[in-house]
Amino acid sequence: MPEWPSPLSVSVGRRHDRAVISREYPIIHNDRGTAQIIGVLYVEATLDHVYQRLIDTGVVILISQGIKTFLVSLFTLYIFWRLVTRHLVHLAGFLSKYDIRRPSAALRLQRRAFGGEDELDRVVAAFNGMCISLERAYTDLRDANSELEQDIVARKHAEAEIIRLNAVLEQRVHQRTAELEAANKELAAISSSTQSAGRTP
What we know:
alpha+beta; about 65% helix
């Protein structure tokens, strides 16, 4: 068996101490049906550029996903404002200006009908029903107060008439009493003069 000369070592690049992946691949030569290892290929790779590419890719993904999330959130907020928030603002403004003493037109939301009644429609219907009930109760209470005021005025007139009649009656009683006293005095004088005339001879 022939002897091989001293192995030849060829290197390209420089070796690293950290973040290294290394592999050894034997170089096999088939000589007359016999496989012989004629050398070893040693491959070493660092992960610095891989990590940097991963970091760059992660930053790009993070920024792009952040922008997408922001746009989706902005679109969601716009849809929510369009469908819900602006109607709630209109409802709050209507409630702040509502005065039961000067009822206005019924509350209506300016939006398209989407084929069915939703929660906002139920809130508006409930509020309009409550306004009708309150206005009816306020009207009944106002009418009752008006009738009560009329009764009070009538009672005051009746009390004043009673006081006037009592004064007239009291005056007549005094007058009748004075007349009776005068008549009694006259009767007493007549009686006394009659008795004096009967005693005279």
